[in-house]
Amino acid sequence: MHNQSCKTMEPPSLHLLSCCKTRRGILACLLTLLLTLFGGCFVLLREDGTAMKYVMKPPEEPRDALKLSISTENITDTDGSNGVTGYNTTDAGIDTGPSLSSTASLHVDYDRYGDQFEYFPPRGRVRRKKKRKHTHHSPTLVDHPWTSPKNDNISMYAHRFPHYFIIGFAKTGTKALYELLKMHPQLDGPRREMRYFSSGQIQNLTSYLSRFPPPPAQGYTIEKSPDYILSPLPAVRLKKAAIESGVETSSLKFIVMFRNPVVRSVSDYLEMVSWSYMNRKPALPPFDMMVLSPDSRVDDSLNIINSSCYSYHLKQWFNIFGKDQFCFVNGDQFITDPYTEAKALEECLHLNSFFTKKNFVFNKKRKFYCFKTSNAPMCMSGAKGRKHPFVSEEVVTTLKDYFRAYNEELYSLISRSFDWESSMKS
Ligand SMILES: Nc1ncnc2c1ncn2[C@@H]1O[C@H](COP(=O)(O)OS(=O)(=O)O)[C@@H](OP(=O)(O)O)[C@H]1O
């Protein structure tokens, strides 16, 4: 056997193809095939007869750092610096933290879906994705600076820093609310969810800000990333970024939208079903089977469950920003009477009074309101308002019991209550 040296590098596929033309090449190809199948290696035979073995890179360890835990008393950001008074930082983890009952503990399983910090699968029309040949590795969260490079002219974009953020909760109507708010003459924002403070996909602060339109005259920019609320880390990073952009952090406002937690979990489940289908993953079990373990306990390790424990997540943000910086929207009511919620929000955000009933047009076919200014009414895509599956009485009751303590804590946190105990529209 020839001298072999093991190198960790990408396999040079072009060399491989060209060497398959010769007799020696064919031998090398066979050897390559065997080693690829059983040994995770490529072997290439060189012109001079020596062999070269390329070891295929093992997949990168998934964000070990994110598995650790933080308590809100001890939050350290990736660079170890501290942008928030009273908090030390480490991007080393997420608080799987205290739960309301001693038995139930929240576990946010960040490795469950998608890349990096993506808690939820991508949304959109149900169109199956082709299998990707090459996987792209975006920079890991641990390496992410969350600031701008020293020599970057951040002041060019600093005025675009959003003053309003829709931070959660996913599947409560955040997209419809965002599109509606962007119709207000004092507001404008990017078309897509940024997730800058949660996903680490955008390179740096300057790049993030450059994706915003300039704010309207006497107005502000707004962004919606409904996964921000699920961890205190985006709050810490956001605060640091605001300071770096020269923005008064107390002037920022955060919009949090709620919906019956059981219904929200079902809606989130449907998002997962759609994601699994689009990404050619195995089909998911029915909702009832998924959320309850065989001994009929709620599986609180599921994202679709713990994302409905609103008070738990909100409290973490309350530790970082003042309570008066939050505005709340009742997502159930936003479906049936968006006008009332929009007017209340206008007031909370200190915006000029703009929305009138004429801006809301009920679409009988879609069974949702569409929003209208001067143009044709704008309706949400078919990915919103999916038909919910049947959920058994037993599961509904168990979930309601599970969420009760969180709901009650939420009502006292925000001094407002919702009719979730008696209602269950799924
Ligand atoms: N006007 C209007 N049009 C369409 N859909 C509306 C509207 N208002 C609220 N909703 C509800 O929004 C739910 C989706 O929530 P999100 O937009 O927050 O989802 S996402 O997190 O951005 O994926 C979606 O949930 P599902 O019904 O479970 O699909 C809708 O019920």
UniProtKB/TrEMBL annotation:
<feature type="binding site">
    <location>
        <position position="369"/>
    </location>
    <ligand>
        <name>3'-phosphoadenylyl sulfate</name>
    </ligand>
</feature>
<feature type="binding site">
    <location>
        <position position="259"/>
    </location>
    <ligand>
        <name>3'-phosphoadenylyl sulfate</name>
    </ligand>
</feature>
<keyword id="KW-0472">Membrane</keyword>
<keyword id="KW-0808">Transferase</keyword>
<keyword id="KW-0325">Glycoprotein</keyword>
<keyword id="KW-0812">Transmembrane</keyword>
<protein>
    <recommendedName>
        <fullName>Sulfotransferase domain-containing protein</fullName>
    </recommendedName>
</protein>
<feature type="active site" description="For sulfotransferase activity">
    <location>
        <position position="171"/>
    </location>
</feature>
<dbReference type="Pfam" id="PF00685">
    <property type="entry name" value="Sulfotransfer_1"/>
</dbReference>
<feature type="disulfide bond">
    <location>
        <begin position="370"/>
        <end position="379"/>
    </location>
</feature>
<feature type="domain" description="Sulfotransferase">
    <location>
        <begin position="162"/>
        <end position="404"/>
    </location>
</feature>
<feature type="transmembrane region" description="Helical">
    <location>
        <begin position="25"/>
        <end position="45"/>
    </location>
</feature>
<dbReference type="GO" id="GO:0008467">
    <property type="term" value="F:[heparan sulfate]-glucosamine 3-sulfotransferase activity"/>
</dbReference>
<keyword id="KW-1015">Disulfide bond</keyword>
<dbReference type="InterPro" id="IPR037359">
    <property type="entry name" value="NST/OST"/>
</dbReference>
<feature type="binding site">
    <location>
        <position position="267"/>
    </location>
    <ligand>
        <name>3'-phosphoadenylyl sulfate</name>
    </ligand>
</feature>
<keyword id="KW-1133">Transmembrane helix</keyword>
<dbReference type="InterPro" id="IPR000863">
    <property type="entry name" value="Sulfotransferase_dom"/>
</dbReference>
<dbReference type="InterPro" id="IPR027417">
    <property type="entry name" value="P-loop_NTPase"/>
</dbReference>
<feature type="binding site">
    <location>
        <begin position="384"/>
        <end position="388"/>
    </location>
    <ligand>
        <name>3'-phosphoadenylyl sulfate</name>
    </ligand>
</feature>
